[in-house]
Amino acid sequence: MILSEQGKSAEAINVFQKLTEDYPELPEPYNNLAVLHASAGNYDKARVALERAIRTNPAYATAHENLGDVYAKLASQSYDKAMQLADPNQQPPQKAKLAMVRTLTPKGGEAASPLAAIAAASAPAPVKAAPPAAAPAPVIAQAAPAPAKLPPPPVKAAPAAAPAPAPAPVLAQAKPLPAVAPAAAPVLASAPAVQLAKAAPKAEQVQKEDADGADVIKAVENWAKAWSAQDMKGYLSAYGSNFQTPKGQNRKAWEADRTARIEGKGHIKVTIESPQVTVNGNTATVKFRQKYVSDRLSTTGRKTLVLEKQGKNWLIKQEQSGS
What we know:
By secondary structure, the chain is α+β, with helices and mostly antiparallel strands. The chain has 15 helices and 4 strands.
């Protein structure tokens, strides 16, 4: 990020490229690499990097939104070229298509519009939060919180335009509906009674769910502590026998890969922040913000763990980053 702000785009690209090779399971380096390519006008390279980020984590919303901006820009360029090659005496359909594409971006589809939207996903920390610049954590993963600010300029403009013609059909359909309304009334009247009957958990059940939630958080914290201490036995024992390894990798191969990535590091610290637990029987889902700091990398991002109760222990069944 510092190299990028200093205008050293080539060096910044090399850094992010190296990060994608050292940590291929992280989607953020691919996303930030795409930002730099897009800023230089290399939309095809940006597209490839974003598609790799999505393959790494299909739930990474930032990459999906940025890929949409890149596709819109590529489409705009293609229709511009088609307009240049078309017969000037005819009204080619490309003109209407180009106008439609440009509604996806502000200022009539100018080149700066999609780039500004994508750049916002990569560099929110240096611009809006100067104090965190002292901490290394925001270097890569600040791409994750940006999606909340990314959609308004380019993406949400299209949905705003689409619903505009819709009110007329909706009002037209509203007229014949009164005949159905009386039939719906008894359903609505009876529904609360059924819901109240089902939504009356016993005190013991509530206490059990609270206790299970506390046990789940404790299991996740122990997993993070074992990771930080490079305690591979404790770390690997946190995963259940039915753990879904990335890309269907063999369990032994995955354990060997994780051991090579964790053991021997000079320093590792994994911190869990703001965990949110949902318990459903013997299955629990935990969503939290993970801070990872080592002597080579500092990153912050969202993570989701799905745990299953096996005996008295909650063990990890699924692991997803960026969601």
